[in-house]
């Protein structure tokens, strides 16, 4: 077996350092891949797989892509989760002595993409890290395309880690071993978010993380960033910095600030709530259209689009900041001319944040600098326009807007207006920017003028009318004479090349001019590149100033977008305060009303933390219960991001977090049934809700048998209503009409239903109006008719329903009333839940001793052994199969068998 060629030895040595990557090995105008890398690339990119003998006695699989189109292929591989190591030639092959030096200059991973073909304009591309350290979880994330870098610390709890991961949605994440080995966290990342997961190095330690950060930011401590004492957070941020240092191998100065944030600054939205409310993507197909973002996003810049998405995922808890945003939106609405003028100007602004990332990275070309200049030239106009406004936020943004006139002037003076994409072919730098360059260009131009006159001069001198002057890269300039005229060639012509029908010649004078022209052009092109890099580096030094102005433009774009939407959709300004009321007059669902071809039916909402904190909503399917509840949640969320809301009037008592339990499905990855998923979500709500929370519950208990489900739903309502720690404002939709009796027992409960009309012609008509009181029936068979079930099934269903209603002439509601009235119930005193005499007279359905029950037993059989076993049962640790067996045994005991 022979030895490998020197080049393959070089390849193998480099590949050993990057075994987890596909190695793009530069060979001339191609990136080549060998062995398994070639086989993977051939399959994933659908390119030809060849083989060559590179030494070693056997042929090696080989595949390659042209360098000029490599970005397209790399983007495809990265989207599929692969890492790509770019190995470049570090010297000019024509000047190399022996084997060309090569090395990896960058590793591209899903979380470190800079290519515009891969990145989405309105979406950040984050690399995240979550590290469990000293019983705390540090969480950090960075977008290297914009320079955004943030860190926080969380209590060690699965749900809290998942909530932040759900909000940020990184493309790639680094996890400490404890978190990576956690099935729930790992499954959520891989199966639901499709994230590429990396392991934190086992020997990575706190001092190393700290040193990496202070070295990067060139500081003596992290006090200035507010995270000096957040050891877990420093571990996470340091893990990111180590990853970037290892993979990027280049300037990271645009990552110049580490933002330390607290999740307590923002409304908490867990993963289920973000999904159920369809904040930025629909549940069905993950599309932007049909989500809240799809409605609110009228931004005209990519930077604004990304910032709006961030705002939606982080509603504010600071009343002052909310009011400042609302004031700004309000002022835009009242200055329509200025609003439209601003939006027109912003349409001319490119993605400054990502342009700056490329500039700092050294990957920006002349067109990128020209795009930056064409964006910055509008800053004076924007600043002047902002002087017309008086709201505190707009005035603050105006003062923060750096005009960057020095940078604009530099690029304007240096870079031609319409530069080429390439950097090594000249045509980049304007005349007058550099004296030496101008002289070289003049020398080349004079030489070309001489060449242009040469053809006419030689025709005159030789009498050869068909003589031509030509040029090619191999032979340079030449004089071409047809064979019929060779006898007229002067003695000073030197034969250079023989063709089929002609001969090519040079003269000493022509060769001298050629050397002058080509030498000047070569020097000119090289100098242009040097000058361009110098200009690019000068711009990169002003990264902080440019980032600040870019952030101002992004926020202006978002505020203008919210104003535009408010005008177009007839939104009102909400009042947000610290009270516990949620009052919405003629509220509408912001998304549904846009999707409908007919007018949306508005509805009122009133919740408070005392006498109306819990609304039980009944009514048939398709009548609008879920839409109504979601619209309340979205209106609250919109108000707290600083947006106007779809209503005639809205007063929002600040909400610390929104919980939703709307629908459920089997979680096959963890072996959990639909009902178990539902109970997990309910448990999460029960454990984390406060009196300042808003809870949306839809059909709790429907995943199990009727009596089990009804019992659980009943108990959940009592628990949320009665516990002082909770007492959250709650909307509870249900088909269990039996639950409506709780309005008589629990002071804070109110019944509402969706109005339905019946007539002979149309049957059931849903009015989509939420009205006080309980629904009298479910109209399930009518809904089935609307769904298109055959008449035979509908007829038989009605027969069965009539039979069952006849058999059960005493409804479960009445049974519970009678049981509650005849049994002794253990009561707890709650002075804030006293039922007034007026309400007692109005209802006249319960005995005086039942005014303030902490709990009402559904079947009043506390002493029965079956009840005791049910109370002792830990349902959260029972498998579905065990549950079936337990229920079977309990049923037998209840029947006395």
Automatic annotation (TrEMBL):
It comes from the Bacteria. Gene3D superfamilies: 1.10.1420.10, DNA repair protein MutS, domain I, MutS, connector domain, P-loop containing nucleotide triphosphate hydrolases. GO terms for molecular function: ATP binding; ATP-dependent DNA damage sensor activity; damaged DNA binding; mismatched DNA binding. One of its GO terms (biological process) is mismatch repair. InterPro entries: DNA_mismatch_repair_MutS (IPR005748), DNA_mismatch_repair_MutS-lik_N (IPR007695), DNA_mismatch_repair_MutS/MSH (IPR017261), DNA_mismatch_repair_MutS_C (IPR000432), DNA_mismatch_repair_MutS_clamp (IPR007861), DNA_mismatch_repair_MutS_core (IPR007696), DNA_mismatch_repair_MutS_N (IPR016151), DNA_mismatch_repair_MutS_sf (IPR036187). ATP binds at residues 619-626. Keywords: ATP-binding, DNA damage, DNA repair, DNA-binding, Nucleotide-binding. Residues 693-709 form the DNA mismatch repair proteins mutS family domain. GO terms for cellular component: cytosol. Belongs to the DNA mismatch repair MutS family. This protein is involved in the repair of mismatches in DNA. It is possible that it carries out the mismatch recognition step. This protein has a weak ATPase activity. This is DNA mismatch repair protein MutS. The gene is mutS.
């Amino acid at each position: 077996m022979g030895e490998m060629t020197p080049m393959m030895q070089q390849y193998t040595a480099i590949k050993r350092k990057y075994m987890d990557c596909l190695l793009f090995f530069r060979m001339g105008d191609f990136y080549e891949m060998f062995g398994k890398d070639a086989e993977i690339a051939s399959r994933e990119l659908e390119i030809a797989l060849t083989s060559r003998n590179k030494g070693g006695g056997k042929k090696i699989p080989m595949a390659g892509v042209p360098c000029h189109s490599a970005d397209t292929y790399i983007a495809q591989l990265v989207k599929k989760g692969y890492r790509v190591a770019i190995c470049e030639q570090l010297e000019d092959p024509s000047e190399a002595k022996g084997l060309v030096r090569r090395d990896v200059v960058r590793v591209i991973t899903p979380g470190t993409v800079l290519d515009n073909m891969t990145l989405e304009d309105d979406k950040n591309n984050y690399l995240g890290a979550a590290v469990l350290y000293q019983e705390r979880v540090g969480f950090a994330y960075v977008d290297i395309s914009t320079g955004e870098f943030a860190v926080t610390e969380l209590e060690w709890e699965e749900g809290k880690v998942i909530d932040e991961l759900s909000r940020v949605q990184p493309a790639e994440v680094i996890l400490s071993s404890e978190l990576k080995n956690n099935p729930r966290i790992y499954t959520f990342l891989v199966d639901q978010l499709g994230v590429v997961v990396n392991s934190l190095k086992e020997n990575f330690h706190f001092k190393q993380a700290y040193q990496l950060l202070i070295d990067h930011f060139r500081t003596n401590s992290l006090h200035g960033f507010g995270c000096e004492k957040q050891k877990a957070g420093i571990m996470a941020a340091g893990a990111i910095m180590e990853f970037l240092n290892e993979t990027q191998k280049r300037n990271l100065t645009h990552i110049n600030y580490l933002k330390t944030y607290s999740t307590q600054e923002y409304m908490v939205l867990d993963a289920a709530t973000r999904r159920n409310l369809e904040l930025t993507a629909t549940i069905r197909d993950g599309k932007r259209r049909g989500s809240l973002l799809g409605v609110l996003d009228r931004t005209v810049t990519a930077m604004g689009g990304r910032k709006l998405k961030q705002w939606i995922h982080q509603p504010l808890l600071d009343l002052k900041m909310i009011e400042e945003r609302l004031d700004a939106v309000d002022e835009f609405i009242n200055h329509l001319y200025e609003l439209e003028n601003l939006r027109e100007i912003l349409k001319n602004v490119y993605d400054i944040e990502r342009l700056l990332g490329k500039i700092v990275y050294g990957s920006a070309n002349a067109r990128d600098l020209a795009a930056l200049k064409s964006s910055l030239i509008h800053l004076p106009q924007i600043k002047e326009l902002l002087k017309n406004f008086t709201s505190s936020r707009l005035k603050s943004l105006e003062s923060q807007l750096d005009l960057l006139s020095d940078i604009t002037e530099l690029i304007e003076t240096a870079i031609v207006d319409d530069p080429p994409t390439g950097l090594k072919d000249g045509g980049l730098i304007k005349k007058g920017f550099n004296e030496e360059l101008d002289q070289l260009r003049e020398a080349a131009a004079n030489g070309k003028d001489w060449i242009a006159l040469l053809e006419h001069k030689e025709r005159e001198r030789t009498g050869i009318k068909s003589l031509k002057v030509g040029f090619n890269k191999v032979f340079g300039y030449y004089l071409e004479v047809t064979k019929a005229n060779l006898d007229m060639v002067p003695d000073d012509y030197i034969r250079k090349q023989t063709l089929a029908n002609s001969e090519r010649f040079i003269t000493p004078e022509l060769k001298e001019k050629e050397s002058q022209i080509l030498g000047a052009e070569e020097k000119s092109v090289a100098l242009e590149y040097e000058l361009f890099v110098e200009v690019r580096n000068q711009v990169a030094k002003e990264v902080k100033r440019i980032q600040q102005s870019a952030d101002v433009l992004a926020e202006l774009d978002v505020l203008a977008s919210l104003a535009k939407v408010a005008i177009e959709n007839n939104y009102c300004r909400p009042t947000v305060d610290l009270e516990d009321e949620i009052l919405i007059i003629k509220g509408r669902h912001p998304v549904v009303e846009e999707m409908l071809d007919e007018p949306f039916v508005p509805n009122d909402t009133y919740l408070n933390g005392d006498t109306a904190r819990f609304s039980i909503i009944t009514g048939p399917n398709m009548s609008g219960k879920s839409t109504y509840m979601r619209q309340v949640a979205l209106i609250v969320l919109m108000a707290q991001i600083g947006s106007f809301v779809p209503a005639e009037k809205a007063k929002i008592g600040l909400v610390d977090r929104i919980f939703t339990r709307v629908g459920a499905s089997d979680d096959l990855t963890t072996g959990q049934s639909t009902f178990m998923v539902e109970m997990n979500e309910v448990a999460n709500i029960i454990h984390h809700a406060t009196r300042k929370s808003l809870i949306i519950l839809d059909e709790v208990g429907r995943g199990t048998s009727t009596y089990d489900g009804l019992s659980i739903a009943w108990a959940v309502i009592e628990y949320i209503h009665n516990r002082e720690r909770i007492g959250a404002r709650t909307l509870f939709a249900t088909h269990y009409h039996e639950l409506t009796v709780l309005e008589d027992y629990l002071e804070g409960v109110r019944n509402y239903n969706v109005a339905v009309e019946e007539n002979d012609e149309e049957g059931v008509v849903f009015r989509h109006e939420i009205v006080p009181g309980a629904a009298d029936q479910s109209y399930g068979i009518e809904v089935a008719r609307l769904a298109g079930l055959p008449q035979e099934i509908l007829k038989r269903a009605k027969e069965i329903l009539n039979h069952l209603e006849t058999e059960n002439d005493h409804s479960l509601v009445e049974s519970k009333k009678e049981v509650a009235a005849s049994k002794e119930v253990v009561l707890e005193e709650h002075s804030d839940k006293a039922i007034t005499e007026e309400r007692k007279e109005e209802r006249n359905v319960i005995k005086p001793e039942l005014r303030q029950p902490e709990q009402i037993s559904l079947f009043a059989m506390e002493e029965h052994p079956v009840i005791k076993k049910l109370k002792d049962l830990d349902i959260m640790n029972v498998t579905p199969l065990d549950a079936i067996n337990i229920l079977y045994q309990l049923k037998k005991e209840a029947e006395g068998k």
